[in-house]
Specification:
- The active site is at 122 (acyl-thioester intermediate), 368 (proton acceptor), 398 (proton acceptor).
- By secondary structure, the protein is α+β, with helices and mostly antiparallel strands.
- It has a domain at 5-151 and 269-408: Peroxisomal Thiolase, Chain A, domain 1 (3-Layer(aba) Sandwich), CATH 3.40.47.10.
- It contains 15 helices and twelve strands.
- Helix 3 (61-76) runs parallel beside helix 4, helix 5 packs across helix 15 (370-388) and helix 9 (194-213) crosses helix 13 (340-350).
Length: 419
């Protein structure tokens, strides 16, 4: 069995490889406001569309980005000539850099603004934020855009191919297997029952439906126009989900492991995009930009590919130790719900109260456009902290092929009560 989260926190300082450059500093230092801080001045997402059936099923990633760039510039009044760099996290569209660059140019961003793309699968959006934040920290960028986008409708996961020589290695073989297989391996190895998975899934569905009823997502969604239609409401969240309806669903992968993963207790497949504007505190103040959050740092880990879903158990303690924080310091956790099997196991191993995790539901209910999720969780988490007048967000996700990532952010859309 895995060590307890307490032991993991104790071990985390020895796992500093692939961590952000932010040194261990502690809560008091993190809450200080310094001119060189990397801050977020805008954090919004599009509504999410159900793959193959929803409102964005015919919109390729360049069209979604084009619409999001235009809506962002209109909303913020940001002079696009002041943008120094753009990084786009996306997973499966062909020629992603070409289409991202084209979308930026078509939206009115000048040709002298460079752009890059990053693909670390489910963490790609968080990696885009990380790349821009690190460039700002290094003094190479002053204002940057971090984007996460994917169309699971038009660019579903391709089947990875490796050579026979590489495939002879058991871990190499495991790392290219379908993600549903890894869900079943986690369920089997860690005895996560179908009933437990459905119970955790019900929490996600129930919370997301409550959030919709209360208009909570309105504050984080930036309406975009696609082919003359305004997209502003998620069409992925299913009403009326009960434990009975979940338990009646057939296994999605009947030939693997215990066959406990279903369409109701796994992340939805969807389409969407999200965006953050990052700069230094000094530049934000000089430009009169509203500061909504502060970047603290991130961490990336690797785990056995067969059990890739357990990686937040390691990524979260690592980023907390790096920042000099305890898990109790965090007000909200946004932990990606790739599958209820891995999500349930992570929650229980980390021993974090479920009330703090995904308070408005997660990817099981909202859906998981791979490149979008890493930015969406930051957008959602910061919006919820603002509602609660809370302070700290920790976001984390497992990553296909056997990795995990986590990040820490400070809410600044209020007067910080901890200062």
């Amino acid at each position: 069995m895995l060590s307890s989260s307490t032991n993991l926190l104790a071990r985390a300082p020895r796992m500093m490889r692939a961590a952000s450059s932010q040194p261990v500093s502690g809560l008091a230092a993190i809450l200080q406001k310094n001119p060189e801080d990397v801050v977020i001045t805008f954090a919004k997402r599009t509504a999410v569309g159900r793959a193959k059936k929803g409102q964005l099923k015919d919109a390729p990633v360049d069209e979604m980005m084009h619409a999001l760039f235009k809506a962002t510039l209109a909303k913020t009044k940001l002079d696009p000539t002041k943008i120094d760099d753009i990084c786009v996290g996306t997973c499966h569209p062909p020629s992603p850099l070409y289409v991202s660059r084209a979308a930026a140019l078509a939206a009115g961003i000048p040709h002298d603004v460079p752009i890059s793309t990053v693909n670390r699968l489910c963490s790609s959006g968080l990696m885009a934020i990380r790349n821009i934040a690190h460039a700002i920290k290094a003094g190479e960028t002053s204002i940057g855009l971090a984007v996460g986008v994917d169309s699971m409708s038009l660019n579903p996961r391709p089947t990875p191919e490796i050579s026979e020589a590489v495939d002879k290695n058991s871990e190499a073989h495991d790392c290219i297997q379908p993600m549903g297989w890894t869900s079943e391996m986690v369920a089997e190895t860690y005895s996560v029952s179908r009933q437990k998975q459905d119970e955790y899934a019900l929490i996600s569905h129930t919370r997301a439906n409550k959030a919709v009823a209360n208009g909570i997502f309105v504050n984080e969604i930036l309406p975009i126009e696609i082919k003359g239609s305004v997209i502003s409401v998620d069409d992925t969240i299913r009403p009326g989900v009960t434990i009975e309806s979940l338990s009646s669903l057939k296994p999605a992968f009947p030939n693997w492991g215990p066959a406990t993963t279903t369409a109701g207790n796994a992340s939805g497949v969807g389409d969407g995009a999200a965006l953050c504007i990052l700069t230094t505190r000094a530049r934000a103040q000089a430009e009169g930009m509203e500061i909504v959050g502060k970047w603290v740092g991130s961490a990336v880990v690797g785990v056995e590919p067969r059990h890739m879903g357990i990686s937040p158990i390691y990524a979260i303690p690592k980023v907390l130790a790096q920042a000099g924080l305890s898990k109790e310091d965090i007000d909200i956790y946004e932990i990606n719900e790739a599958f209820a099997s891995q999500f349930a196991h992570c929650v229980e191993e980390l021993q974090i109260p479920i009330e703090k995790i995904n308070p408005n539901g997660g990817s099981i209910a909202i859906s998981h456009p791979l490149g979008m999720t890493g930015v969406r969780q930051v957008v959602t988490g910061l919006a919820e902290l603002k509602r609660r007048n809370g302070t700290l967000l920790c976001t984390s996700m497992c990553i296909g092929s056997g990795m995990g990532a986590a990040g820490i952010f400070v809410n600044e859309a209020h007067t910080n009560s901890r200062l």
